[in-house]
Amino acid sequence: MSYELKIAWRYFFSKSKQTIVNRINSFAFFMVVITTASLFIVLSAFSGLKEFGLSFSNIFDPDYKIIPEQGSYFNVSEKVMAKLESIPEIIAVAPEIEKKVYLSFKDKSQIAILKAVSENYIAVSNVDDLVTLGDWLSFKGSEAVVGFGIAGNLSLGIYDYNDFLKITVPNINSDGALNQSLFTTQPVMVSGLFQINQDLDKKYLFSNLKFGQNLLSLESNEFSSIVLKVVPGVKKTTLTQLIKTHLQTSFRLVSRAEQNEALYRMLNTENLGVYFIFSLVMIIGLFNVIGSLTMMILDKKRQIKILISLGATRNGIYKIFMIIGLLICGIGGAAGLIFGTFLILIQSYYPFVFVPGTNIEYPVIFELNNLIIVIITLLVLGTISTAWALKSVSRGTD
What we know:
It is a single chain. This protein is an alpha+beta fold. 51% of the residues lie in helices and 20% in strands. It has helices at residues 3-13, 19-60, 78-85, 148-154, 198-201, 209-216, 236-244, 256-259, 261-299, 301-309, 314-349, 368-392; strands at 64-68, 74-75, 90-105, 108-117, 131-134, 143-147, 165-170, 183-194, 204-208, 222-223, 225-230, 251-255. Strands 3-4-9-6-8-7 form a six-stranded mixed β-barrel. It is elongated.
C-alpha cells in the first residue's frame, strides 16, 4: 500500500481539532449519501411508474404485428396462417382488421377506431379480461365491445335492443353515381364495455372479423394486419426471417414499442429529464465535497509541509487529497445506495407510500441498470468535483 493511500485513509477517519472542520466534513459525507440515495430512488420510482403505465398497453397491444408494406390490406390464406402458427417461436396468430369509423347513437356521434378480430384473438391479447361490464364478443352476430370513454360520450348501455350503435365508413365500391350511397352504415348491439386507460377507452371498440369484412366489403381472407404472440426474448430480425419463408407477400413486422412509438419516446424523454434534474441536485451536493477538501487542506497545512520536508512530492500530496475526495464519494455513495435499496425493497414488499387520493401503492422497481447509472454518475461527477477542488486550492500546499 502506497504512503498516499495510507495517509489519505488516516485523514479520512481521523478528526480535526477544529469542530467546524469536522462538521463540514460530516455534512459533505451526509450530502453524498442523500443525493446518491435520492437519484437511485427517483430512477427506481420512475421505472415503476413506466412499467405500471405500459402494463395497460402491453395487455392491449400484441407482441408483434404483421402489416402490409403497401396499401391498407393484404390477402393471407388459412394455409399460410397455419404455417405461421407452426413456427416454434410463435405462440399464437390472429388476423385483424383495423379501421377508423364514425359512430352514432341517437343524437350523439364521434370518431373511433374499430378492431374487427377473430375468435382466437384472445390467445394473442387478453382483452376479454378487460371487459368490466357485460360480456366479450360471442361471434354470433353484429355486436361490439366498446371502451368506457366511448360509452360515456355516446351514453351507451349494454344489451340495448331498442337502440343500436351505428357504425359508418366510406363506401369503397362507390363510383360516384347519384343513386349510390357514399357511405356504408351497419348497426351493432353493444355487448360489453372495457376499461384500460382514459386514452384507449375513448378511442377503440371491438367487433367480430366477419362484421368488419362485411362493413368494409372485404374478402374472407383479406386483413389489415396479423397479430402475433411470441416466445419471450425472440429477436425481431430472427422472427422476420422465419415469417418470410411462409408469407410471400411484402410485409413489415412492427414490435410493441413501435406500435406505441410516441408513448415510448415520451417516457424515455421524461426519464432522461428526471435523470438530469437529480444529477444537478447531486452536483450541488458535491459542492460540499469541494468545501470539505478545501477546509481539510487548510487544516492540514502544517502536516503537508512536514510531509514535503520528509520527501513527499507535490504530486503525492495531490494524490492524498484526491483519494480522500474519492473516499468521501465512494463510501458515501455506497451508503446512499444501501439506504436507497433498503427503502425500495420496503416499498416493494411492505408499501408505505401510496398514490395521493387512492389506495394504490406507489410502484417502484429495483433495476441493475439504475444502479449502474447512479454509480457511473457519482464516480464521474465525484472525480470532476474533487479534481476541481484540488486545482482551486493548490496554493494550500505552498
